[in-house]
Amino acid sequence: MRKASSLFSTVALLTVLAAAPTPSRAETNFGQVAMHVAYMLQNHHLSHQEFDETVSKKLLEAYLNFLDYSHIYFTQEDVDKFRSDYSGTLDKHIHTRNISPALDIYYRYEERVKERVAFAKKALETKKFTFDSSRVIDVKREKAPWPKDVAAADALWVDLIEGDLLAERLSDRAREDAQKRKAEEKAKEKAAKPEGDKSAAAEAAPPKTEKVEEAPKTAKGEPVKKAAPAKGKDEPEETPEQRVLKRYERLLEQLAENEQEDIVNYFLSCLAGSYDPHTEYMSQQETDNFKITMQHSLVGIGALLSSKDNLAEIQGIVVGGPADKQGELKIGDRILAVGQGDGTGSNSDWVDIKYMKLQKIVEMIRGKDGTVVRLKVNPAGSEDPSNTHTISIVRGEVELKEKLANAELIQTPPVDGKSSKLGWINLSAFYADMEEGTVSCTADVQRLLKRLMAEKIEGLVVDLRGNGGGSLEEAIKLTGLFVPKGPVVQAKDWRDNVTWRDCENERAVYEGPLVVLTDKASASASEIFAAALQDYRRAVVIGEKSTFGKGTVQTILPVERYMPFFSDKSRAGALKVTIQKFYRIAGGSTQLKGVIPDVQLPSLRDVMEIGEDSLPNALPYDTIPARTFTYATKTPLPLNEIRSRVETRIAANPEFQYVVEDTTRLKERIDRNTISLNEKERQKELDETRARSETRKTERKARVEDLAKTAKAGFDQYRLTLDNVDKPDLVKESNFTKEQATGMRVAESEDDEDGVGDLKQFPYGMDPAKLETLHVLRDLIQLSGRPAQTANTSDARKANGS
After folding, report:
1. More confident position, 563 or 428
2. Which NCBIfam families match (predicted)?
3. At 350, which CATH number?
4. Are 379 and 528 part of one and the same domain?
5. For 17-26, 470-479, 611-620, which range has the lowest pLDDT when averaged over its residues?
6. Domain termination site, one of 369, 399, 429
7. What is the rounded CA–CA span in Å between residue 30 and residue 769?
8. Could you tell me if residue 557 is inside a domain?
9. What is the bridge-based pairing of β-strands 280-282 and 574-583?
10. Residue-level pLDDT at 358
11. Average pLDDT in the 89-107 region?
12. pLDDT digit string, tens, across residues 325-337
């Protein structure tokens, strides 16, 4: 369910990075909020379903499963009692502003968690686990029965604890083996290298001792420190038993922080989800965060926090944000307390944030543009917790660049003596400022697109992998960059009234060969865009088995708008409610089925429970009459020939064959849904997996080396962002840092100190899906026989900002 992760989340973007003034805790009547949410659902949801006995039963089951998703805390006796007391009657309670059932169930859940943690602690102290039995445990338990009673729960938890301990033991062993292999490899490299010899890579890179001088600097010119290691050199590692117990105890700490507002939030989220998976109740903080997600900017200090050892630790700092400009806050600093204002008079108090949830720390650091927040921090690297200092930061606007549109210009190696210039646009969300209209992903994409056209690209890929959607308006406008004026999407409301939306451009900005790349996570607005271009015969859609299948329209309704004038509304939150269903211009819905690609690539996710059809209460698929529209091409796209070429390449590509093999194994594991508690069996499975991984690693290395010997040229890649799109010189991808890409400075990973990721193991340094997509685009260019489209002189000047 949607908010399961929010219950125990340990990482939050400083949406501390904050959005708006945070009101002090008000005495909001949450029973009144619940009643109005119920009436809003009845009156505004697409189904117009009364909140009656039927919905009441669904709500109870949803709430029980939300709190205890794996069915390990409640007993069947508890569940039977809840069903006896509340099944079919929650609607009556809520209509009379009574939220006591939500609290009663939650407090019983809290009680059961405490009992289970106490049982786990005793078992870890007194029971000897041998890991040599033939027992198994279920991997996923959401469909398993609850334990019958406390005795059955005890028996279940003995297995669960043994499973956790075994996982920790195997993890320790794997880490030790990895460290040993790494040390052996370094020793071999050192022995094989003559004294004074330097590889070409070493000559091209500065010595390690000079690295600090090249590291990112704060506004005061100080080098950024790495995060301190979790353990001191002389401090012993925690045992598996200690780590498992700490995990359980942390759960108790998080539960203790929940207030009535949090509990009501969970309960109303389950009520909203009883209507369909995308109808959501959002607390006031979630409402603020939603605006931040859509606008990609906020007001705050510009930092990334995570919860570590019961404190908030700085994991990243937004380049150019208030914290970065102030210069004192460092990556790895641990926040101990938060204060407001200049620290004098009524602003002199500190609030200790140890054991506090990140969500509440976030709220404390939020505030108005230009106001001051004080942080009491324990510096990164300090082993003395009493070593603290105070940092005062003036809140300001922070731009979140990581999810903004960006592009690549890719020069391919020659084929039959001819190289191609291809464009690649990455769009991870259909973002927009829905209030002031100053932020538009379409406007950003258009800037990037015109620069690519000025560089005379022959074809273009729009990459929508992982794009969960966003603004419907932006999906329509973005479609208008590639097709002339015409219908883009249809919608039907609860009265069966059908409406449609057109893109308004008289002529497309780009008319050349086009490929749209999707995956199972491409949803909503992504599906509208991909479906429209597919229906117009404008683009070849390539991707996994299907897109997500979210074909519904939501609107945001502030709950306060429906509450009485004199009531306290400051914490009322908002309802994101489904009001329409989407339909393609060809008549079919994107609901449930998603967009089926023209060209399918092998993917592990094809056998996973991912997508609309795996969600509870999903609305059905249906069709409506097609709109009248004109195809972008007189003849169909050469899909059969493209598919034939793709099938040949996939069959000859070991990377895709690995995926096919792994998919078969994954499907078998999913169907089995059990894991052994026998250490020897588990170790054997892990050894087989590692051996397979090592074999593939060796094979990949050999392929990359063979390619280096035979290929005369590789792909030349250049990165375009909204920061450099107007600059005359292109920036090579190899010279483009992660900091430039994300706008965030983060601690270096010990496993990846040189910044080199897994992509270097693949031919040309590209993931297989990306490389195959470029092959498809080249096929399309060749088969369509269309010349490269360039931006005209006036367009080029506009793209360059002149």
Report:
1. 428
2. prc (TIGR00225)
3. 2.30.42.10
4. no
5. 17-26
6. 399
7. 49
8. no
9. antiparallel
10. 79
11. 96
12. 888 898 888 898 8
Contact 747, 227 (CB under 8 A): yes
Residue 444 sits in the same domain as residue 536: yes
* Same domain flag for 385 and 423: no
Q: Which domain holds residue 606?
A: 406-488+504-549+586-799
Q: Is 418 noted as a catalytic residue in this protein?
A: no
Q: Is residue 521 part of a domain?
A: yes
Give the pair of three-digit tokens for residue 230.
């979790």
Measured between alpha carbons, how far is 292 from 429 in angstroms, rounded to an integer?
13
In this prediction, residue 348 carries a pLDDT of 73
Our answer to whether residue 550 is catalytic in this structure is yes
Residue 644 lies in a domain: yes
Q: Within this chain, do residues 315 and 439 fall inside the same structural domain, yes or no?
A: no
pLDDT given for residue 489 in this prediction:
97
The rounded mean pLDDT for the chain is: 85
Are 392 and 410 part of one and the same domain? Answer: no
Amino acid at 506: E
DSSP 620: P
Q: pLDDT-derived band of residue 65, with 50, 70 and 90 as boundaries? A: very high
* 734 and 769 housed in the same domain: yes
240 plus 381 within the same structural domain: no
Indicate if 180 and 309 belong to the same structural domain. no
Helix, strand, coil percent content, the chain, rounded in steps of 5? 45, 15, 40
- What CATH number corresponds to the domain at position 513? 3.90.226.10
The predicted structure's pLDDT at residue 159: 96
Q: How far is CA 490 from CA 339, 469, 499, in A?
A: 51, 17, 6
* Catalytic residue, candidates 57, 330, 477, 550: 550
Question: Of 354, 370, 399, at which residue does a domain stop?
Answer: 399
**283, 307, 524, 546: which is the annotated catalytic residue?**
524
Q: How far is CA 105 from CA 112, 117, 458, in A?
A: 11, 18, 61
Which of 262, 288, 535, 606 is catalytic? The answer is 535
- Region 9-26: what's the mean pLDDT? 38
Whether the per-residue pLDDT at 223 is higher than 70: the answer is no
pLDDT beyond 70 at 88: yes
Contact 296, 19 (CB under 8 A): no
Would you call 346 a catalytic residue per the annotation?
no
pLDDT for res 532: 97
CA distances from 321 to 297, 721, 760 (A): 11, 18, 32
Distances (CA, A) of 686 to 240, 516, 679: 18, 37, 10
Backbone angles phi, psi at 514, to 5 degrees: -140, 135
